[in-house]
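User: Please run a holo structure prediction.
Assistant: Happy to. Please share the sequence and the ligand.
User: Here you go; the ligand is zinc ion.
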Amino acid sequence: MMKRVLMMKMNLMMKRRSMMMMILMLRIMNWKNWKRGQKPERKPLKNRSAPVQHLAGWQEEGQQGETDTVLSAAALCVGVGSFADPDDLPGLAHFLEHMVFMGSLKYPDENGFDAFLKKHGGSDNASTDCERTVFQFDVQRKYFKEALDRWAQFFIHPLMIRDAIDREVEAVDSEYQLARPSDANRKEMLFGSLARIGHPMGKFFWGNAETLKHEPKKNNIDTHARLREFWMRYYSAHYMTLVVQSKETLDTLEKWVTEIFSQIPNNGLPKPNFGHLTDPFDTPAFNKLYRVVPIRKIHALTITWALPPQQQHYRVKPLHYISWLVGHEGKGSILSYLRKKCWALALFGGNGETGFEQNSTYSVFSISITLTDEGYKHFYEVAHTVFQYLKMLQKLGPEKRIFEEIQKIEDNEFHYQEQTDPVEYVENMCENMQLYPLQDFLTGDQLLFEYKPEVIAEALNQLVPQKANLVLLSGANEGKCDLKEKWFGTQYSMEDVENSWAELWKSNFELNPDLHLPAENKYIATDFMLKAFDCPETEYPVKIVNTPQGCLWYKKDNKFKIPKAYIRFHLISPLIQKSAANVVLFDIFVNILTHNLAEPAYEADVAQLEYKLVAGEHGLIIRVKGFNHKLPLLFQLIIDYLAEFNSTPAVFTMITEQLKKTYFNILIKPETLAKDVRLLILEYARWSMIDKYRALMDGLSLESLLSFVKEFKSQLFVEGLVQGNVTSTESVDFLKYVVDKLNFRPLEQEMSVQFQVVELPSGHHLCKVKALNKGDANSEVTVYYQSGTRSLKEYTLMELLVMHMEEPCFDFLRTKQTLGYHVYPTCRNTSGILGFSVTVGTQATKYNSEVVDKKIEEFLSSFEEKIANLSEDAFNTQVTALIKLKECEDTHLGEEVDRNWNEVVTQQYLFDRLAHEIEALKSFSKSDLVNWFKAHRGPGSKTLSVHVVGFGKYELEEDAIPCGEDSNSACEVMQLTYLPTSPLLVDSTIPITDIRAFTSTLNLLPYHKIVK
Ligand SMILES: [Zn+2]
């Protein structure tokens, strides 16, 4: 697959069409110093906060669309990033990005801006990249002007007091600790270390307590003064670009922006320029083979070239053209060939367009291949296949036919895009303003403007073996690696490419006859007509087919008016949850089916017809979306492959080996392990990840898979939803196609698509287990309060409660107590049973998990007081904010479909849920909220703490040294190690030291749906 950054773009056309929405782009003050030469990074390198909503398993499919709304939004990009870090204070730019949030002269409260936004249904974030720093927020329109004024103070007069600096450095440190056990981050850090000495690519952008606090203290460096100095030098108006979007008139917006933002100081100093530092990787260290020990269980080969900066060629997009071909998965492609050999599972190629991969000094072109065990043994041959393909491309030269096909697909995408989140839109746009001339702000990063073969050829001809850097990730490298990366501790070794291969690659080696250019794509839509209704218009989906074998919900779109459709099916079977082995066989089945489809369906995928197969808890979920013209072709292809499912022993082995790695990788992450443990306790009859891992390691045969699949396909209940530019007659055909092709019997009895949940006894239960990755300092602490079988009204009250909790929780646990980077309360719907929880990700090198648990309790007590003293006004403001969020219109059809699909897949069918929730919200008083919270606390409360305990001195161990997989043998992750409670919590908690023994004594709550 090509790195898909360019394709994940937002709907510019839709925005332009919608006349109500005014977009104001405004470059602050100085238009002259405009400089291009960089590319926008799409994914923030470092999020300040990323509060993930964790809904329990049952709803994981996603109740989305609550914040994607017609909120007003703004984003500001400072044209300076981590490249400008001083050598003696690594991470200073990133630290400053954090510090401007900590109060200003005009609004001195720490996190005051967050608190203001939370109160008014908004959110904010920021990220620091190599040459840019971006801040963005959204909020209800009514509060937009005030929010702008508060936010602008970050750039007008932030306080940055010493005490706050001391505490916030811990948040940056936690962010670094969290980032450490990630192979992607490690690979990047190692790559940076290969840069020429003194080149900014080699800097440590993250920063940590060592570089920002302890080292400076030792060397008499005043971080406080240096932060101010950095701010004054680099947060200057003439390097800033700003985008605001709101329903105000352009004149009003312009007036506001001028009034508020013209106070930002402009020092007139030249913008730091790194454009002269080209060829950062023109070093002997670059063209080598690096063996690296990864954190996860994975074999992967990455081949990388460092090219001259390509931003200037954005009208041609040569790397886009090349990655289109290199990442192709159809017949004749690299991946197709490697898959047939059972050597590779996936391939990504191209430039990710982060600041790290493309900046004013260079551009990356890289190809990453996930290898099988066999592929690892043949990694030189794998690399050779890549080089053969590139040599073929160089010989053939650029082809106009291919360029025009890509151009056509991008044009279609652009013209019929669906709207995205305003905040994403402004974020992207303020970066585009730093990169493109005015006329290309909206299109510069997406469209291919002109075909210039010589520009493509120039980039293409650089991609030769002699200039490549090879990185081989594998646990098998453990023990063979004598080097260690300075910041993340990655173990690696450096060697020359084996002589025989080096010689071959120097010679005029032969092309591979199995590799060739892709044929013409038959999935590119050409009919964009909107269809007429063939049945009455409805606001919500209507059941148009209902038989013992299945039913179909249908709604023709009449709102977004785009030539696209969404088709979703749930193939429900009681067979899946019968045993842990069945759950695993089902996983294997879905993985092999996906593998089998990869090549035939790839063309559809690149023509923006997307599909996804998901192994749900109780059934197979098939999702298809895109231009409706050719969509039935893709849907039928998937059903055909399902009906004629088959596998070879080699593919079976490859996929099961891969699944072992996947399970293992889930188990060694404290966050995912904590979720598994919590759900294992709550959802009776659920199979744990460890059960599944064990079943898989015990060995399953291809025969058992084939008989499982046969049985699965023979008896089902199929439920579908079709929405978009499709008639009801066409929709009925989708269900008919499934029923006819699979020819299955109906289920003998109706089955629930939920787990039954245990009723927790009163008291505070504590389940404390050791993390399974010995090298990982991260701990995860979740304190969960069970509420029970509740009504829709009570569910809404819980949502309101959690909304009130969010900002105080962040302020208390993260800012004041500095317990960790990820800190959040959340409303939990566990198979229909209501509850809420507070989660803190911390590090055993800093805190003991029981101390964190105590602090969470302390927070909840302080919150109880806070909420009791809440003013009527503040209560009403929050209610209004939540109502506004729920009233917000969908910005694209996908949101509406997601919401409806969630009702179908959970068999609740309350399509007008939001209206009911809004009605409920209007009926609440402050005392309802206070009493509701009180009812969950105190002696009768049903509390469950889950601790996954990391490795470090606060857990009575030496500090952890992140290390690779071999220190975690397979059998070590096959069971949980329960830890005893320490004196701190021993009197106040009831330990759980055997989950099955504990849950088998409990009452089961009845199946419950939240529909009234
Ligand atoms: Zn950060």
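The chain has a mean pLDDT of 89.
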